[in-house]
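Please study the protein below:
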Amino acid sequence: MVSVENLVAKARQDRASDIHLIFGLPPKYRKDGKLEDMSTLPLSADDCFDIAHELAGTAYGEYEKTGELDAASTFAGNRCRIHIFRQQGIPSVALRLLSDTIPKLDTLGLPPAALNLPGLHKGIVLVTGETGSGKSTTLAALLDYINHTQKCHIVTLEDPVEYIYTPDKAAINQREVGKDTMSFASGLRASLREDPNVILIGEMRDRETIETAITAAETGHLVFGTLHTGSASDAVDRIVQVFPEGMQTQIRLQLSMCLQAVLTQQLVPKKAGGRALAVEMMVVTDAIRNLIRNGNTPQIANAIATSAQIGGQTMDQALVRLVRGGQISKDTAMRYAHETDYVKKNA
């Protein structure tokens, strides 16, 4: 039988981020953003079913019923996020290797203004980007900084729980969707009765969750959440468009008043191997609040570009800085840019 322990140990040794186990293919892992074979032997159907049984444990019946299952566990001393899913009637597995320790906030390569976010007392802070862009790591570093510096109560809602915090100055409750609460929305509603100062929402994926998050921010809580969007303006639009047209004006008004910042992340290949973090940072100014309120989101990128004095930067500005710092090539920056002409002229 294929050993998940051995696969995770090898992936960890080779600094891979993810493992993919698929019928008919050899085990693969993702290094520096690219999939590579871990062996030459393809996985049989029996291998895939055995691995799924091992990883799902007593929850295997749930996988059989729904065709998907999320979980987290530790293999070879490394905590992993697990997703089991059915394809062509046979289980496939995606494993994300999580860091053993939560990194320090100032080691991630975030814009300097991001270091001010843990000092906020209320409002919404969003971390956005595609899957695998480091959103969970950034959020964990932000919350752990609060944990070590503030006497407060932190409640997290995650699916599944990824990083495990060791309470220091803060009291921390980590709730897993599906185990500790039925949904993000129900867990978030309940959290408002749990006397929190800080709330982490693993994913703001539906109207009820977003509506409750805005209410939490308006009532004096600091709310961190994630969205799968490629820019700050897209994040604003995504939130507003979850609501019916008749409610969108009111939501824009509420969002303009409680949104504090949006970080949008990409991991881009370095010249020397590995990946560098490129971050667009929108610090919400009065000008940006007006743009949100009036629905002028296409103009947000220009407002971010001219807010450098308070720490704002666009994704293209972040990429240019990485080129000038020698971390990534100009060609790489242009491949990941929103406006290639800007990068071409300035990098």
